[in-house]
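Before surveying the methods themselves, let us examine one representative protein, written as a sequence plus integers encoding its fold.
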Amino acid sequence: MAVRSALPWPFRWAAAAVVLGFCGAIGLWAFEFGKDIAGLDGGASEELLQLRAEMVQLRAERDRAQSVANTAQTLLTTEKSAQEQLLAQKKQLEADVQTLRDDLAFFEKLIPSSGAEGIAIRGLQAERQGGQELKWRILLIQSQRNAPEFRGNLEMVFVGSLNGKPWSATLPAGPKAIQFTQFGRFQGVLELPAQVVVKSLSVKVMDGSVVRATQSARLQPA
């Protein structure tokens, strides 16, 4: 027994042609779609590479700008510190100048405008410090304005008691050589024996063998 198809051959060929045409259309569409996808991916890659290059360039420019900003900030900080130091030095100099002006005004008051020529002794002081030391200070002034430089010696005698007995001493190195024009400040330290009590001191300003000025002062008990 033979089984025959119900469709005649012409219809079979027509159906086969339709199927082949549909498959061809699908294949063509897939090919074109693949081309489109491939084209899009290629453009995106190029654009990504371009964006990366631009990003690297922008980062380099940012780093340069940051470096310039850091340098400018450092310069500003250094300049500010220098200005503060200059202001501090200026204030200190102004204070020093004012102190010198005050000293000058004080000494000008001590110098008489007229009168006999001579050397005046001012500010003779002595105080005990450290237990076994006596620190002394003296200010010498020439009464004459625009006086020539004086060169001479300073003699000092310290008087007191040691264990209830009279005691006296002079400067350890002998008379102190001095020189000054209008005024001079002089000071020194005398080492004292244990148990000594200094009660007074006297000073002489010597010009060779001539006494130019003399003064005595009593010390307050410690």
